[in-house]
Amino acid sequence: MQTFESELRQRVIFGENAIERLGEVAKVLGAQRVCIVTDPGIQQAGIADRALSALAREGMACHIFADVAPNPTTRHVGAALAFAEAHAPIDIIVGLGGGSAMDCAKGVNFLLTNGGKMEDYWGSNRAKLPMLPSIGIPTTAGTGSEAQSFALISQAETHIKMACGDRKAKFSTVILDPRLPDTVPKSVAVAAGIDAIAHAVESFVSTRRNLMSQMFAQHAWKLLETHFEAAIGGDSVQPDAEYSVYGNMLFGAYLAGAAIEHSMLGAAHACANPLTARYDITHGVAVAFMLPHVIRFNNTLAAALYRQLYRDGELADRIVALKQAAELPHCFRDFGIPRSDIPTLAEEAATQWTAQFNPRPLALQDFVRLYEEAY
Questions:
Q1: Torsion of the alpha carbons at 184, 271, 312 and 305, rounded to the nearest 10
Q2: At what angle do helices 283-309 and 315-325 cross, to 10 degrees?
Q3: Ordered structural domains, the chain, with CATH
Q4: The pLDDT value given to residue 235
Q5: Looking at beta carbons, which pairs linking 290-296 to residues 24 or more positions away fall under 8 Å?
Q6: Distance between CA atoms of 10 and 12, rounded to whole angstroms?
C-alpha cells in the first residue's frame, strides 16, 4: 500500500481575463504595497500594465521589476531583491510571466523575508521565518512553477541549477487566464508546451509517484497532448475555439506542475540541464531532445506505465511526432555541439538531482548512451 502526503492549500482562479481580478485577490491577502516580478517581453506586451491597473483600482501601490531573463540566476534574484528593498515595505509579491519570472519571484521572497543567499535554501524547507503571501500568474503553458513550492535558480558563476523549495514559498493564489498565453511568440509557446508535456510524462513514472501525482499527471497529459498541436498552430485555430485550446494547455501545465510537486521528474530533465547551462539551449527544447530516448531507455521497466498514458502506439513515437509538428530540432548536430563533449555532459547529467528518481537507474555509461542516441 502506498503512503503519501498532499498539501493542496492554494487558491486557483481560472477564466478569461482573470488577470483583471488581481487587485481583488491581492486585497484579500492584505496587500497595500505590491512588487511584480516579470520580464521585458511581458512588459512590452502590455500585460504588466494590465496587472498594474488591476491593483491601482484597489488603491494599491505597485512597483514592477521587469529584468528577469530566461533561466534566472542568483544575479537576477539579487537585482530583484535590491529593487524590492528600494521600494520597501513590500507586503506581497507577484510572479508574472513564464517559469523564470515566477521562480525569480519566489527567490526574492526567500531573501526578502529570511535573508542570506539562495544557496542557503538549496534543498527543502530551510526558511526559518514566515514568508510574504504571493500570487503566481503564468503567461505560458509550461513550467508549472505556479503549482510548486520550489524555485529553480542557477548559480551565476557555475550555471548549476539549484532547487530551492519551501512550503511557505508556494504561491498563495494562482491566476490562470487563457487569454495570456496567446500573446507569447510561437517559439516560446512551443518550448513551454513541450516542457509541460515532459513534466506529465516524467512525473507519471517517477520513482516517487503516488496515486495523487499520477492522477494529476495523467489528466495533464490528456489535456496537453490533445491540444498542443492546435495551440502552436496560430491561424489554424478558429477564434471561437482558440481560448478553449489555450485554457486546456494552461490548466494542463498547472496540473503537470502539481504532479511534480507530489512526485519528481527523471532522466530527460537531468540530461537537459547541462545542455542549457553549457550551450544556452532553451530548457524545453533541451528536454524535447532527450525525452524520446529516455522513454525508450525506460521501457524495460516502465512500458506498462507509459501505455496507461498512450494506448495508440509507442509513447516515444508520439513525442517525436509532437516535436515534428512543432518544428523542433531533431538532434544535437543542429546546434553544432561537438561529439567530444558527450563524456563531460554525461558526467554533469549524472549529478543532477532528478536523475535519482528515474524509474530505471542510470550509470554514467547510460547517460553517454542517451546523448549518443540524441546526437
A1: -120
A2: 140
A3: 11-181 (3.40.50.1970), 186-374 (1.20.1090.10)
A4: 44
A5: 290/370, 290/374, 291/198, 291/201, 291/202, 291/316, 291/319, 292/316, 292/317, 292/319, 292/320, 292/323, 293/370, 293/373, 293/374, 294/202, 294/266, 294/267, 294/268, 294/358, 294/370, 295/201, 295/319
A6: 6
108: helix, strand or coil? helix
Alpha helix ranges (H) inside 34-73: 40-44, 47-56
Which position has the grid cell 504571493? 134
For the chain, the average pLDDT equals 92
Grid look-up 495533464 returns 220
User: What does the alpha-carbon distance between residue 74 and residue 207 come to, in Å, rounded to a whole number?
Assistant: 30
Query: 238 pLDDT band (50/70/90 cuts)?
Result: very low
- Describe the chain by its helix, strand, coil percentages, rounded to 5: 60, 10, 30
- Residue 71's pLDDT band (cuts 50, 70, 90): confident
Distance, in Å, from the CA atom of 15 to the CA atom of 193, rounded to the nearest integer, reads: 19
Closest CA to 166 of 176, 156, 151: 151
Residue 146 has pLDDT above 60, yes or no: yes
Max Cα-Cα span within the chain: 59
Summarize pLDDT for 272-292 with one digit per residue, the tens. Answer: 999 998 888 889 999 999 999
**Measured between alpha carbons, how far is 150 from 157 in angstroms, rounded to an integer?**
21
How many C-beta atoms lie closer than 10 Å to residue 185's C-beta? Answer: 10
